[in-house]
From TrEMBL, chains A, B:
Organism: Franzmannia qiaohouensis
Protein name according to UniProt: FAD-binding oxidoreductase
Keywords, ordered alphabetically: FAD, Flavoprotein
Domain FAD-binding PCMH-type stretches: 39-220
Keyword Flavoprotein: yes
PROSITE patterns with a match to the protein in the record: FAD_PCMH
Amino acid sequence: MTIRNDTAVAFFTQLLGAKGVVAEAEDQERYVCDWAGGRLGMPLAVVRPGTTEEVAEVVRYCHEQRIRMVPQGGHTGLVQGALPDDHIAEVVISLERMTRIRRLDPLNFTMAVDGGCILEEVKRAAEENDCFFPLSLGAQGSCQIGGNIATNAGGVNVLRYGMMRELVLGLEVVLPNGEIWSSMRALHKDNRGYSLQQLLIGSEGTLGIVTGAVLKLTPRPQQSQTALLAVPSVEAAVRLYALARRVGSDLLSAFELIPRQCLELAFEAAPQLSDPLDEVYPNYVLLELAASGPVDLSVMLECLLEAGMEEEVVLDGVLASSIAQADQLWLIREGMVEGQLLRGEHLRTDISVPISAIAECVEQAAAAVTTLSPNSLLIAYGHIGDGNLHINVLPAAETPGEALPALFEQLEGAIFTVVDGFDGSISAEHGIGRSKQAAYLARLSSTEQRLLTSIKEVFDPDELMGAGRILPLAERQLLSNIH
Amino acid sequence: MTIRNDTAVAFFTQLLGAKGVVAEAEDQERYVCDWAGGRLGMPLAVVRPGTTEEVAEVVRYCHEQRIRMVPQGGHTGLVQGALPDDHIAEVVISLERMTRIRRLDPLNFTMAVDGGCILEEVKRAAEENDCFFPLSLGAQGSCQIGGNIATNAGGVNVLRYGMMRELVLGLEVVLPNGEIWSSMRALHKDNRGYSLQQLLIGSEGTLGIVTGAVLKLTPRPQQSQTALLAVPSVEAAVRLYALARRVGSDLLSAFELIPRQCLELAFEAAPQLSDPLDEVYPNYVLLELAASGPVDLSVMLECLLEAGMEEEVVLDGVLASSIAQADQLWLIREGMVEGQLLRGEHLRTDISVPISAIAECVEQAAAAVTTLSPNSLLIAYGHIGDGNLHINVLPAAETPGEALPALFEQLEGAIFTVVDGFDGSISAEHGIGRSKQAAYLARLSSTEQRLLTSIKEVFDPDELMGAGRILPLAERQLLSNIH
């Protein structure tokens, strides 16, 4: 522990009190190791400010002392953005003590919250006021709103309600120099000047720390219909989606592609699950319709099934006749993610292409993967309505562990090349952080790189916040700031 | 005409051909006078490039020669942003020849278009493919998509579909130095790095020229229900809105407040209109439900009426029983704007507050206006669902014309002060341009001003594009660049 570290910790302790600082290495464990088990280095300290003003004071101190900082939410990101660095010790600024629901206005359909609020708590508070906050993620029990905003989170309801970007009306942000910037107004429309708010959303903690937000709510759905439909092919799933969009008006809230292998993976992870259909089919679609008003959703669903059968894009299906049965169907969606983890290390991707190109993209990706690694298992599942698939690869059991990193790199490169062919994205919802940086930069035009770097310089000329995430460190920074 | 002008015109003519340049003052009329009749100065030239590459070449030339430019769409803006300057002659870059629909993909629900496409043409092309582009504005017969994006246009369907910002998936922009920046991908989700796209949307032609865009479509509604409901008060209209959001699920596509005086104004402008209800009421709501699928919208509307009567927020109403009758009701909404123009010069505002504060805001604004100008007529109408009202003032007939500018300034200031009291916005959808600049800057924090100015510098360090719009000219620019 260097002198600088001691001085900083003493300052933070005086400012925030004992509960506001985690100084000892053994207590820092949960701040240095993310959801996916990744870890890099140890922090200089972990601070846990309780108010926006405290966050600002911490940041001002770090800014003056040229100490690097990394904001941390629920630590459920998948691109290593919130992990403390392994070269230069950073101060982890955790928002976990800032969990206040500031104001909920059901007539305005808005809710002002602290950045550290857990997503599930936000959803619950909305529901208690007969409203609904639509962001819906596997990690919602631990991810925080500030992190959701910093990473522009997605999830299963995007096709109806949009990404996090579209659910934020106001923001409060502590900038890298400790100034507080705020647009905390509960306005559904505000068209004044350049949207700093939109620039900050999705900046992954590199331009500022989200300490508060005004969220957009909708009426709470009073009813929903969930169905698991068997479809003959990925292409049929895409055609079924177009039908579902039309028949479902704007009431379609989820439309997930689930290949057969994913069902099997879910059964492995959750043995209490059983096959919802009598026969085995190559692909399934899990869909949901929801409404807050008097609509007969079952008529809508029957209409869709009928049209789907007629167009031969639906082979079979089960409609949940109760909430319990619907939950059971959604357990498949969750279980298949767990099932992949149980199979051990695997390649995860998060790509998007135009919806109309999904089937061909999956086909080409499967061919590329088979060529490189004939015995591995490719699974392609996800959000058809967003053109967003997770094309993952589970390596053959016989592949030696030490060969995996190189194999994954090769496979990822091959999948990304396929995605490039459709003008797709190598990161549809997970962001860039560290793990997608190389692939991201390789696809960036020099014009865009210049603009992005200049914007980072406007907000954080000394590269003190989230340094090295999204954009690489500027050359000069690699030479200085070592302690 | 200076030598520099001749040289520039010669260059443009060689580059674009005769049809690409409007050099003579008499032909420039429609480029120097906007929709609302505003005019400032004459341009150095008007150029009409036909392709993105031509736009880029024009801009590169202007950038090299340090000639100021102003992009121009359909010229229907309300804040004088596209008017050529009166101090320094600018080159008007009109997109009107770039009207190509590049690609429409109904399976992906996307459409790629040139920046100069007229909004109505875009809507028509979408409909021909059984899709729908939801942006809906009074000016849609002449406004252009590029301008809609540059100004982040709003309109009557925002409560359901969002502002223009939420309808754009990809952009193609010529930057102030002539470089082309593009995110022209037809992706519903793409979460890579800072969103330059969102920063450019709403930048009002000061950071670049929108030459192309990928737009998000929805299924084409197959049915709609329109109703004009009489409500006892503005507060009742707000409560009715909350009901309508719930009962209407997400199928409510418009909800407009229309005070009685606006009905009268509509009758003045369109004498063929007649009062749709037998009695006279103080306020009305014009609402629309629309769906692409099998939903019984009339049941929904009956449900809403019943609940509204029970809660005493609906007094009376007429449901359009045919498309012709619905169009007739919408004519009232359009006619009342024309009716205001017929009454002569008047104050227009475009404010927003939280929906729950609308009634009190209107009350306070009316009181403030009455105090200052007892005989003038205040009308407050607009988009309840967005908290966005146009609080306009028609001066008393006896007010002398030369007294109007000072009166309007005073009244506007008083209304804005009321809006400030509710943490509202002085520009909900019209943008800043020139006419809102003073009010905008007066409310800008020094932090925000510094960030915005720095961002402008990143894109346009010499202040050559849209100079003086949104942000004031930097001091140094006021002293140089005169020719």
